[in-house]
Amino acid sequence: MRAMPQPQIICSLLALTIFANAARTDSQTSPPEQQNAQSYGLRVSVDEVVLTFHAADVQGLPINDLKLDELSLSDNGRPPRKILAFQSLQDLPLRAGILIDTSDSMTQDLASNEAISTQYAQRLLRRSTDQAFIIKFSALSEITQPWTSDTNALTEGVRRFAATRTSHLRGTALFNAIYQACLNQFGHIDHPETGNFILLFSDGEDNASNASLKNAVDACQHANTAIYAFRASPKSSFSTGPKTLTDLASETGGRVFHADDSEVQIDADLRTIEADLRNQYRIIYKPAELTPNGSFHRIALKAPERVYSFTVRSGYYAPVH
Questions:
Q1: Cα–Cα distance between 289 and 31 in angstroms, integer?
Q2: DSSP letter string over 7-70?
Q3: In this predicted model, which residue has the larger pLDDT, 173 or 60?
Q4: Which of 287, 288, 296 is nearest to 314 (CA)?
Q5: How many CB atoms lie within 10 A of CB 74?
Q6: What phi and psi, each to the nearest 5 degrees, are found at residue 297?
Q7: Cβ burial 124-150 (10 Å sphere, 16+ → b, else e)
Q8: Mean pLDDT to the nearest integer, 222-249
Q9: How high is the pLDDT of residue 272?
Q10: Which of 9, 34, 70, 138 has a Cα-to-Cα distance from 100 of 20 to 30 A?
Q11: Dihedral angle sign, alpha carbons of residues 64, 69, 70, 74
């Protein structure tokens, strides 16, 4: 499985809307310089935007010494009115949602996808700081293991037979599964303090959701959750699945990994995700204009030549009063 080529900006961003009169931490009121934050907690007012991103060099290694004056940021084509903080966040604890498509079109890949999920839980999840949950889905979604740091429990959750596979309902509700995971699971954790991601195993086909791709992306953006899609193999040349997975990943700041079943490549891909999520930068800024109408704001972030790729979200939705 190889990550999609990136020359290389996958842009994204989260607007964290707490309360307008919420207290702000020292990291936000200090000068906009790089900080080694020991505590990642923060609150922001509704007219402030939080942008997180990962930067890597040409060898794919994290770059952790960027300075603010090396970056150029625009929001809907305009520079920010004011940058409030710039922080380097290293060795973040991770929160993972493992979503496994069990619909008929994924039957032949199920055993392999479960094996990769188990590999992540057993090799990379840190029991002292990280947590994960398991959802299996087809037309319906089922949590086969709630949030836990117990690798044995996660392994059992991956193997557990999902009732959705015996349901009389047919089809795949991919967007519903992602929307529910971001809203009901990631939406209830203190996401500024963690690196959040969905490890998605699906061909990208959806024919049974009430939620749309936009609904799913919006929920994940608000929960600061990136989607990393594995084993994206189209079942036919007419499939819209590959584009769907690409859109989900790029809009949320993740990646798509294509089929390569070698143990070495699978391990490398999982470690790429870990590097992305554990080594991030955070910029907090006030946009030049932020009307509370729910409109989408496109973000453009430029860096020096030594940065070969960004893993960042494409933008954010303005809050709605």
A1: 22
A2: SSEE---B-----TT----HHHHS-SS--B-S-------TT-EEEEEEEE-TTS-B-----GGG
A3: 173
A4: 296
A5: 15
A6: -110, 125
A7: bbeeeebbbbbbbbbbbbbbbbebbbe
A8: 85
A9: 92
A10: 9
A11: positive
Instruction: Give the E-state strand segments of 184-303 in sequence order.
Output: 195-201, 225-230, 255-257, 279-286, 296-302
User: Which residues 6+ apart lie within 8 Å of 22 measured at CB?
Assistant: 43, 44, 45
* pTM of the predicted structure, to 2 decimals: 0.82
Is the predicted pLDDT of residue 36 greater than 80, yes or no?
no
**Secondary structure (3-state) at 148:** strand
Helix axes 110-123, 151-159, angle to 10 degrees: 180
Mean pLDDT of the region 85-93 = 93
Reference 315, options 85, 76, 54; nearest CA is 76
Residues 269-275, mean pLDDT to the nearest whole number: 93
Indicate the burial class of 117 (C-beta count within 10 angstroms; 0-12, 13-18, 19 or more).
buried
pLDDT value for 247: 93
Instruction: For residue 11, count other CB atoms closer than 10 A to its CB.
Output: 19
DSSP annotation of 166 reads G
Structure tokens at 93: 């604890």
Angle between helices 213-222 and 241-252 (to 10 degrees): 20
Q: Residue 267: enclosing H or E segment and its boundaries?
A: helix 263-278
Per-residue pLDDT reduced to its tens digit, 97-110? 999 999 998 988 99
For residues 58 and 258, the answer to whether their CB atoms sit within 8 Å is no
**Residue 220 DSSP SS3:** helix
Instruction: Report the pLDDT value the prediction gives residue 150, as an integer from 0 to 100.
Output: 98
